[in-house]
Amino acid sequence: MDDCDAGLMRASIPHHARTMLAPADGEPPAATEKYELFWSLGFAVAADDFTLIGGFDESFTGYGGEDTDFSFTARERGVILSFSAATMFHQHHGVTSPPLQHFADIVANSLVFHHKWGLWPMTGWLSAFAAAGYIGWTADAEGIDVLKHPTDDDIAAARVNAPY
Q1: Whole-model pTM over 0.85
Q2: Residue 18 has pLDDT above 80, yes or no
Q3: Least enclosed by CB within 10 Å: which of 26, 80, 125, 146?
Q4: Read out DSSP for 48-81?
Q5: CA distances to 37, 67, 106, 148 from 113, in Å
Q6: Quick check: 44 and 51 in contact, CB under 8 A?
């Protein structure tokens, strides 16, 4: 590891939701049944498996749901996903909670996903949108009623100082 790499490692913060899934140092990647946690930020798949999966469904636009759909299709087609111990770096960017800047995409892609799979993705975000009065939705709903769209001020107020 050169000095530049060592400095990058010292300045890095493991992602709170993904670190627990990686195998320990020296262990081979393990197959997972946590397909709902697949994250395309950094992944590798053999070309034949990618073809078998069919790539990413282009019905999903913008942000949200496309990764889970990809992994559910992989599961349906018998492609085993594994979590890697590889170190991956993600450029820091502002975070909002809930991700109001992606509100329209998340609502639209949730409907696409629900129509395709019969269940709701991103339930934490949908629940947060509902609790804040942006949508009418419950986990047993057949649809989503948009009640209002977040304003620029709403999005700014949702910004958080996350360490990742």
Answers
A1: no
A2: no
A3: 26
A4: HHHHHHTS--TT--SSSSHHHHHHHHHHHTTPPP
A5: 15, 11, 10, 22
A6: no
